[in-house]
Amino acid sequence: MLQLEGLTRRFGANTAVDGVSLSVPAGQMVGVIGRSGAGKSTLLRMINRLTEPSEGRILHDGVDVTGLKGQELRNWRTECAMIFQQFNLVQRLDVLTNVLVGRLNHRHGFAATVASLFKHFSAAERAMALAALARFDLDDQALQRADTLSGGQQQRVAIARALMQQPKIILADEPIASLDPRNAQVVMDALRDVNRQDGITVLVNLHHLDTAREYCDRIVAMQQGRMMFDGPPAELTGARIREIYGVSEDEFAEAEVPDGAPAAAPVAHARAAPMPA
């Protein structure tokens, strides 16, 4: 069980996340929605402790995550993997090595440095990485440089890398925001597969309501750092969106497209698209 108690983050006079309390049972897939500046990314980064809370607590299975330091904090970041919008792969390295990097969190100090510099991974770890790539139809690309892959393929590599951490939770911060609808579908299918097949808790920030409704067990809607809705997808109706945000669903979706990102259609509009090579 992941529990957030009054979680708050201030940046000077600005309150990015304002007193969010939330309990997420193990194995649930939660979509976090909200217009730009709602505090979605800050919320996920606080859970992973990439951003420190100003107030409140994060608990996981009774452990106070907000009090962890040193190796205990590193262990938490291993159990709570992050996936980012811009993939965060080492572009000049091959796909297999990028996935194997996920095992570095299981090593400490000099051993991790040696493994990183000299690509020194065991046969068992390599087999594990290849299996993760095969799961997402990427085993044929294992020896290609990461920068030769499409955006959707790179994001699936990032998911495979996260799985190498053997996490209990995956936090996906806008993982499909920069992808076209076809690749967005493939990435969301991969996240749902990880959630359903592995029982890993997934919290994912999303731009489109249709995508959140299709893939998530539960939706949390945020506005100006506050949680305005928490419930099953069926209860987040058009009328409820207008009540919370003062706009229609279409206006909400349009406002959610970030500057410089493609105005992709919701994933639900691309269900028949084949998986890219």
UniProtKB/TrEMBL annotation:
Molecular function GO terms recorded: ATP binding
Superkingdom per UniProt: Bacteria
Keywords assigned by UniProt, alphabetized: ATP-binding, Cell membrane, Membrane, Nucleotide-binding, Translocase, Transport
Family matches, as InterPro entries: AAA+_ATPase, ABC_transporter-like_ATP-bd, ABC_transporter-like_CS, ABC_transpr_PhnC, MetN_ABC_transporter-like, P-loop_NTPase
Pfam families: ABC_tran
Domain ABC transporter span(s) in chain numbering: 2-249
PANTHER family to which the protein is assigned, alphabetical: AMINO ACID IMPORT ATP-BINDING PROTEIN, PHOSPHONATES IMPORT ATP-BINDING PROTEIN PHNC
Protein name stated in the entry: Phosphonate ABC transporter ATP-binding protein
Source organism: Teichococcus aerophilus
